[in-house]
Amino acid sequence: MIRTLAVENYRSLHKLVVPLDRLNVVTGANGTGKSSLYRALRLLADSAQGGAVAALAREGGLPSALWAGDRKAEATALRLGFAGDEFGYAVDFGLPQSGGAQPGGAPSLFALDPEIKRECTWAGPVLRPAALLCDRAGPAVRTRTADGGWHRSQGIRPYDSVLSEYADPRLAPDLLRLRELIRSWRFYDHVRTDAGAPARAARPGTRTPVLAHDGADLAAALQTIRETGDDEALDAAVAAAFPGSRVRIADHGGRFEIQLHQRGLRRPLGPAELSDGTLRYLLWTAALLTPRPPALLVLNEPEASLHPDLLRPLAELVLTAAEHTQIVLVTHARELADAIAGEARRRRTDVNSVELLKESGRTHVAGRQGLLDEPLWYWPKR
To answer: Where does the ATPase AAA-type core domain start and stop, copy by copy (predicted)?
Structure first.
């Protein structure tokens, strides 16, 4: 489980160290940095796929993503990291020293690509020299081997991560485990529910333990829960949101389609007839009741398009999912945060409430403004 998330110089997140727990609810006014925190987590996940540099380039390059709150202390490095019970990871992005020029001196069309200047993984919750598992400085990489020694190599490209290039089970078994852990993280952000949404179309159905990021395989995911997951929890979630209702999956020659049977109606409602809020709630049901829980599940504004009456059933779903996976939920809706807190009290469990505030262009966590209020964190030095 991740215990600490650290971000430095990413948009309004100048120096932010956030403690995390099993269930984390991130709130705050508009513009306080909630979306930046969500995107920082996604960038960390992209590192394990070798896609963090490309993701930053899509944001306009490193200069567009860097914190720009104080001209006297202009940021030149973007740092992301996390630490947990088993592993920690930190990556330091910087501007190309050559300005992005090609080896022959000609200007490069990839001048917006940042370079990875420093990258480390370690065992345990705090970076210490004795706990290092992989240490990358520029092109030089050393990885801890299974016998406790070090394997040294040169030549990693400045835009490649050690997580994607050096996960050799013979030379770096712990690095491989960390990479697969990060790759198991799951993100859902503003899944479409409009008339042309993928979730409304009948599609070929196969066993689907993990809902796709766009919700296209919703019908198959719900049927998978019914056959191999928690069938009773699925029925309870639908009944709590829509009393007297039940979800069935129709099979039209191998193409699956959602049908919502409601009390008093002679026929079920098909996917094209469902309201945006109803469809979105069913999407969150499939995501949260997955038969294959990830190490980390991150939801960004799941309350969008939901009727206020659906917030409490959604809170119950979130608490149920938190029994099997770590959750970070980012929300604009105080009502949803309150519903989750109330359900947590009823179940006698804890919620880590993270309220973000913004002052002088800097985001910080409410009630944790001093260094002594933050979890212990060290960045690897360049």
So the answer is: 23-332
The residue to which tokens 């190599």 are assigned: 153
Confidence of residue 368 (pLDDT cuts 50, 70, 90): low
Give the residue ranges of DSSP H helices in 129-257: 162-165, 173-183, 218-228, 231-241
Predicted TM-score (pTM) of the model is: 0.92
Q: Are residues 165 and 215 in the same domain?
A: no
pLDDT at 70: 64
* pLDDT one-digit tens code per residue, 214-224: 999 999 999 99
Residue 10's φ and ψ, nearest 5 degrees, are -110, 105
Give the DSSP letter string of 227-278: HHS-HHHHHHHHHHHSTT-EEEEEEETTEEEEEEE-TT-SSPBPGGGS-HHH
- Residue 347 placed within a domain: no
- Do 142 and 249 fall within a single domain? no
What is each CA distance from 58 to 43, 51, 53, 170, 182, in whole angstroms? Answer: 12, 11, 9, 35, 21
Q: Nearest 5 degrees, angle CA 54-CA 60-CA 61?
A: 60
- Residues 94, 42 within the same domain: yes
Q: In the structure encoding, which two tokens stand for residue 210, read together?
A: 């993990």
Specify the 3-state DSSP secondary structure of 54. helix
Q: Which tokens go with 178?
A: 């960390």
Structural domain boundaries, residue 88: 2-185+356-373
